[in-house]
Design goal:
The complex is a heterodimer of chains A (141) and B (142). By secondary structure, chain A is an all-alpha fold. Helices cover 74% and strands 0% of the residues of chain A.
Chain lengths: 141, 142
C-alpha cells in the first residue's frame, strides 16, 4: 500500500517535471488531448512536434513494458462496445471541454486557471458518479 | 528540429511518469473513482506530485521573456466558464469512468499491444473527428 502511494507520488513528480520542461523548452501546455487534436484539426501549422510528443509517449510505453510490465496489468473485462463508447466520449468531450487530465488537471490547475479548476472538479466528480452508476448497472465489474 | 526532439523527450518522460504512477492500469483508475465502493485513494498522490512540482516551476519558467526553443509562449489565457467547457468535462468524466482510460495513459498503453487501448484510442480519434465536423456547423464557443 505504502509503496503504491510513493510510486504514485514519484510518477506525479515526473509528470510535473515533464510539463515544466515542455513549458521551458517550447512554451507549451502538456495537454494530451489538445496535442492530439492539433494533429486532426486542419489549422495550418507545423505539426511535427505533436507527432514527436505522441511517439515519445508510445516509446516510453515500450520502456515501461520492458522495465515494469506490471504497468500494463489490471485491464478491465469490458465489451468492445463499451470501450468504443468510452473512447468516443473521451475524444469528443476533451476537445469540447478544451482539455483532459493533463491539460486541465495538471497544467491548468498549476497555472491557477479557474476554467481548469472547474473542468477538473467536473470530470473527477462525474467520473466518481459514473463509476457508481456503471457498477450498479453491471457495466463495470 | 530542437522543438521536435524536445517534445519527443517530454512525451517519453511523461509516459514513464504515467506508468510509474499507475495511471496506465484501468482497474486502478476505476478504484480511485470508486469512492462509494472499495476506494483506492493512491492516485490522488499523482495529482499532488504533479501539481506540487509544476505549480512552482511554472512560475519560475514564466519569469523568462520567452521559451528556450521558441520566441513566444503558447499558454491559453481564456477565463470564461463556457457551456462547452462544462458539457465537455461532463462527457469526458463519463468516458473516463466507463473504461478507466484518459488520453495520455491510453496512448502510452498502445505499446502493450493489448486490444483494449487500441480500440479506445481509435474511438477517441473518431470522437475528436466527429467534434471537428460538428464544430464546423455549430462553431462552439469553447
Amino acid at each position: 500500500m505504502k509503496t503504491e502511494w510513493m510510486n504514485a507520488l514519484y510518477g506525479g513528480v515526473l509528470i510535473g517535471l515533464s510539463a515544466s520542461l515542455m513549458l521551458l523548452w517550447n512554451g507549451r501546455v502538456t495537454g494530451i488531448s489538445g496535442i492530439l487534436y492539433g494533429l486532426i484539426s486542419s489549422e495550418k501549422e507545423i505539426k511535427n512536434w505533436r507527432l514527436a510528443f505522441l511517439l515519445g509517449l508510445v516509446m516510453g510505453g515500450f520502456i515501461l513494458g520492458y522495465t515494469m510490465p506490471q504497468a500494463f496489468q489490471g485491464g478491465l473485462e469490458l465489451g468492445n462496445g463499451t470501450v468504443i463508447i468510452a473512447g468516443l466520449l473521451v475524444g469528443f468531450g476533451t476537445v469540447l471541454g478544451s482539455g483532459c487530465t493533463s491539460g486541465h488537471g495538471v497544467c491548468g490547475i498549476s497555472r491557477l486557471s479557474l476554467r481548469s479548476f472547474v473542468a477538473t472538479c467536473l470530470f473527477v466528480g462525474v467520473g466518481i458518479f459514473s463509476v457508481y452508476v456503471f457498477k450498479n448497472l453491471g457495466i463495470l465489474p | 528540429m530542437r522543438t521536435v526532439f524536445s517534445a519527443g523527450l517530454v512525451g517519453l518522460l511523461f509516459s514513464l511518469g504515467l506508468g510509474l504512477a499507475g495511471m496506465t492500469r484501468p482497474e486502478k483508475v476505476i478504484g480511485f473513482l470508486d469512492v462509494f465502493g472499495e476506494w483506492d485513494p493512491s492516485l490522488a498522490f499523482v495529482m499532488i506530485g504533479a501539481i506540487g512540482v509544476h505549480l512552482g516551476l511554472y512560475r519560475l519558467v514564466r519569469q523568462r521573456t520567452s521559451p528556450v526553443f521558441s520566441s513566444q509562449w503558447f499558454v491559453p489565457n481564456k477565463t470564461k466558464i463556457t457551456r462547452s467547457l462544462v458539457f465537455g468535462a461532463i462527457l469526458f468524466g463519463m468516458g473516463w469512468g466507463l473504461a478507466g482510460y484518459c488520453p495520455g495513459p491510453a496512448i502510452t498503453s498502445l505499446a502493450s499491444f493489448q486490444q483494449q487501448p487500441l480500440i479506445f484510442v481509435i474511438s477517441m480519434i473518431v470522437g475528436m473527428t466527429i467534434f471537428k465536423i460538428v464544430d464546423r456547423k455549430f462553431k462552439f464557443n469553447r
